[in-house]
Amino acid sequence: MADFIFPLAQKFLEKLASFAYEEISLAWGLKGEIEKLQETMSTIKAVLLDAEERQTSDRAIRLWLTKLKDVLLNARDLLDEIECEVLRSQVVAAHGSVGRKLRHFFSSSNPLVFHFSIGHVIKKIRERIDEIAAEKDKFNLIVQHEEKKIKHGRREPTYSYVRVIGRENEKQKIVELVMQSNDERNVDVIPICGIGGLGKTTLAKMVYDDGRVKDHFDLKMWVHASKDFNVPQLIKEIFDSATGKVNENLTLEMLQTELRGTLSGKKFLLILDDVWNEIPDKWFELKNMLMDGSKASKIIVTTRGNNIASLVGTVPTFNLTGLSQQDSLSLFLKWAFKEGQNKQHEKLVEICGEIVERCKGVQLAVRTLGSLLHSKVDEQEWIDVRDNEMCCG
């Protein structure tokens, strides 16, 4: 399958450049690492469009894009959690608790790999992206600009599921919801709600890629909702996803007309990923543009807020909970060890069970800590993570 990750790279660069990350990088002495990441990502992004076009005939480029995609997705998840911590600390300060130490490594309410490990993880991400950037030189890729690219087919989100563990039951339940008919409404909205790091986007993509779902719908679309929930921009992105191309030079009125025409009479599935909007008027403005699909059309909304899920949902909210201890342990082992390596290090496996217990089932925390300890066999390094006071949940 072809990988199209230019939008992912673009959004990753936007995150790096945002004020929240500038603030956190200064506070934790990460400005140098962030700037190096930005510089390297800019050089990669410049040749991504050419790489995407050539991947169908060049297996080496295709593999290179897959490696880059996996690293960017992991990095994006981590940066999302950093942003949440920045916002949380601002709320704490606003309520007069400025002097209180932020002493949790992560907690069930706000899972975040914190302080000493954040620096290590960001450095590892930067080093990995540096390695991938160095590889691009052997492909003689040409710099292209987005507006010059002719897109063929529908650009869909690309997520790696090599390490997805413990979500098959949830996937099956949502697939069943997605395929149900409803005689009362043309379009049903299914909210998937849970704290950051549980894997809401991953679960939505598993549903999106399911063969039964693909056969059930005439049209599938995926849009990442911006924090400001800019309705005209969302309309454009939904239309672009539906048509499989970037539609420039269209007024908002033209976009609305074209989108309604594209959806009219079609049974569609739309994923609105990572919705933060709590303003009813914005939601209903967008929703009204999506009501022309045929019966049994569905919208899946992923969100962290129960109030948002209540606002958008036409069916009961699907509340995502943490992974079981066993699934968490399996996920951790896949990230921390090369295949079969864990059998050679029984003591480390015992320690990882203690680390995983503190993750409280949060997929991102398990994955990031496992990645942090990947291929490390020094028992003391594992003990440091286990015993560090930041790790107390």
Textual characterization of the structure:
This protein is α/β, with parallel strands linked by helices. The chain has helices at residues 6-17, 19-27, 31-54, 59-94, 115-136, 168-178, 200-209, 211-216, 231-243, 252-263, 280-288, 306-312, 325-336, 346-357, 363-372, 379-387; strands spanning 187-193, 219-224, 268-275, 297-303, 318-319. It contains 16 helices and five strands. A five-stranded parallel sheet has the order 2-3-4-1-5, sandwiched between helices.
Shape: globular
The Cα radius of gyration reads 22 Å
Q: How many β-strand stretches?
A: 5
Strand order of the largest sheet: 2-3-4-1-5
Strand content: 5-15%
Q: What is the element layout, followed by pairings?
A:
Layout: H1 6-17, H2 19-27, H3 31-54, H4 59-94, H5 115-136, H6 168-178, E1 187-193, H7 200-209, H8 211-216, E2 219-224, H9 231-243, H10 252-263, E3 268-275, H11 280-288, E4 297-303, H12 306-312, E5 318-319, H13 325-336, H14 346-357, H15 363-372, H16 379-387
Short overview:
The protein is of the alpha/beta class and 393 residues long.
Which descriptors would you attach to this protein?
five-stranded parallel β-sheet, alpha/beta, 16 helices, single chain, 393 residues
